[in-house]
Structure formats: structure tokens, C-alpha cells
Amino acid sequence: MDKALVDASAHLLSPGTVLIDLAASTAFDVVALQQLLSAIAARRSQGVETMIRLPVDAAARHVLRLWRFPHAVGSVARVPFRVLVAPEDHEFFGEETPTTPLVRDTASPRSSALAYLTAQQRFGLRPYRLDGELARLQMLEGETSCWGGFALTRLLQSTLMGPASEVIRVLVQELLSGPLQRRSGKVAITGAQLELPAGGSQTGTLTLAVWDDSESLITDLSKRERTAGGVRADEFALHADGWSPGQRLDLADWQPWLDSGDPEVLLAGLISSTPRDRCAKGYAEGSHGMYALYNCAVDVFGGSLRIESRQTRLEISAAPDSDTARYRVDVTTGPQLPHQRGNLLAVRLPVCDD
Asked: What pLDDT sits at residue 69?
């Protein structure tokens, strides 16, 4: 998906119409769709047109509807979804609901519960306008209402490797804290996806993510002063792709210079984040919720946190037992990644059927 989005980014300023061809798609990753929405938003900001081909598979088109993809595209493109769809696909508007099961290719006994929740639109994309305090409050209320539902809570209790209550208490709240505190954003898209184990000893994945079109997290972090008192660089083992150094940072007072590149700035925000880094309204202002997110995702659920801004991506997961560090941070930067308009944070948690 990265390569496809990099190719799309290369045409960002193309005066001609760029075609996003989903015709062969049969399944989707919610984070990849959010990246696609970011690319569409970037093209809209440049005043250039985008056209979308819909999946040939009727079940795939139905999933996109249930996942609110048309609404999300309209929110970032600022035009009705139908305007962006290729004319030859207009025949799909108003079509009957397919009889194909919503959850396929899984032997999980919980597939019926997942199908029910998918039909109730508990998963997929949820777009929100951020043009005022009332709109921001509606985003917070909408997400907490969704994740606090009885059926979803029971499903998470039976599949997650940690307490389901921490999903809404920590992960949902902290993922939302970034878009709510950054005042330059106009739209945010939350994403959620549950992939059940295919059978046997395999594990599935619960994904929670949020993208917003606000000022780059890197730009915001570069404006903040960081003190050495909260830095815990000895807890992180770095692995770099497209950037150096790739070794562990073991200076407790490490901070980037004013002219540092994007990876250093983003790492500084991560490494110096603390649970006490709060603003007056309770949001994790200085770290944008980084500490609470990776601490909960990795330590409580055995999962990972992904942070993307501009052309830099951090993936935080548990370090191997053989490593003295607590967390592994994979840093990827450079032209092999698409340019991320705004900011994308995603948590992925393992789920099981035990």
C-alpha cells in the first residue's frame, strides 16, 4: 500500500485527473483507507481533481458503504461522493444489499457478533468536522458512545489480551486528544477494524486509528521546549530505515537540535513524553498522548502504536526479551513512504478466541 500511495503522491500536483482504481479490491485495511483519504485531501487543497473506480465485487462495495467510505471521501474532498466516482460506476448507486456474509474466511465462533456490529456500523470510518467547540464535543461523544456499547464491550472482553475497559478509558480518549487539541484541523476521520483469528493458534487484530488534517505533529513538536527531566531514552531500542543513527540512544538528556530532521523531532516527542504531560483541559498536550498510547497498547495489550507525520513513521512495540530496552521503535523515513498530510495515529492489538 505504501508504494501505491507514494505513486499517488507523485501525481499530487498533476493538473490532470488522477484515478484511484479500487475495481479489483475485495477487502480493505482501515488505516490504508485513511491514508488514501489523506491523499485525496491533499489533492483537494491543491485544487486538482480525483476520480474513484468502485470495486467490481458487490460485497466489497457494501463494506465500503457500511464503513462510511463515501461520507468520509465527501468530508475531505468537500464535494458529494458521487461527483468523484467514475460515471461508469454510477449504476452501483442505490443497488440492493448483497446476500454475501459480511464476515468471510473465518472459523471464529464470534463471527456472527462481528457481522452484527459491522452491520450496526461500529467498525469502519467515522468522519467529524472540527469547526468549533460543539463539533469537537460531538466527536468525543460519538466515539465514546460507540466504544461504550454493550455488544461491542462483550466482544472485546472475550477476545482482547487485556481489560476491555482500557480501550475506551485510555486508547480512545488519547487518540482523540490530538485532533481535539490541535486547533488548525478542519476534519478528522476515526477508523476501527476487527479481524478475527482465522483458526487454530492464530491471532487476529483490533485496529483503532485517527487521522486529522491539522498542522503536522512534527511542526507542533518542534515549537515546544523539552527538558531533560522526563527523558527515558534508555527504554527505547531504535531500528532505522532511511535514516541514521540506527543504534540505541543512550543519552538521558538527548534532545534534537533546532535544525534536526523530522525523525529526530518526532522521536524527541516520543522519548520525552510522560504521564504528567497535561494541559489545563486534561489532554496530553506536550506528547499528544504518546506515552499513554504506547504504554497501554504495548504493556497492557501486547500490541503496537504507529505514528505518521509528513514522511516519517514510528512503530512502537515490545522489545525482544533478549534486549535490555523495554520498547522497540522502528523509524522509517524518506521517499519510500507517502507524504502524510496531517497526522495519523494507529493502535493495533492482538485478539484471540480463547
From this structure: 97
- Give dist(CA 146, CA 293) in Å, integer: 19
Q: What are 273-318's pLDDT values in tens digits? A: 766 554 444 444 445 578 889 999 999 999 999 999 988 999 999 9
Give the distance, in angstroms, between the CA of residue 240 and the centroid of all CA atoms in the same chain.
21
The strand order across the sheet containing 124-129 reads 124-129, 187-195, 204-212, 340-351, 304-310, 312-318, 327-333, 236-241
Name which of 95, 105, 100 is nearest 119 in CA terms: 100
Contacts 24+ apart (CB under 8 A), 74-79: 74/127, 75/127, 75/129, 75/187, 75/189, 76/37, 76/38, 76/40, 76/41, 76/44, 76/127, 76/187, 76/189, 76/213, 77/40, 77/41, 77/44, 77/50, 78/44
Q: Would the pLDDT of 126 be above 90?
A: yes
Distances (CA, A) of 235 to 33, 304, 329: 33, 15, 10
Longest CA–CA span in the chain (Å) reads: 61
Q: CA 154, CA 166: separation in Å to the nearest integer?
A: 13
Residues with Cβ within 8 Å of residue 141, at least 6 apart in sequence: none
**Does 323 have pLDDT greater than 50?**
yes
Q: Report DSSP state, residue 282.
A: S
Q: How far apart are CA 227 and CA 231, in angstroms?
A: 8
pLDDT band at 152 (very low <50, low <70, confident <90, very high): very high
d(CA 49, CA 73): 13
**Mean pLDDT estimate for the chain:** 83
Q: Is the pLDDT of residue 31 over 50?
A: yes
Predicted TM-score of the model (pTM): 0.88
| Rounded CA separation 221/226 (Å) | 9
- Among residues 52, 71, 60, the alpha carbon closest in space to that of 98 is found at 60
How do the domains of the chain map onto residue ranges? Answer: 101-351
Enter the C-alpha cell of residue 232.
527515558
Q: Are 274 and 227 in contact (CB under 8 A)?
A: no
Q: What is the pLDDT of residue 201?
A: 67
User: Peptide bond preceding 335: is omega within 30 degrees of 0, i.e. cis?
Assistant: no
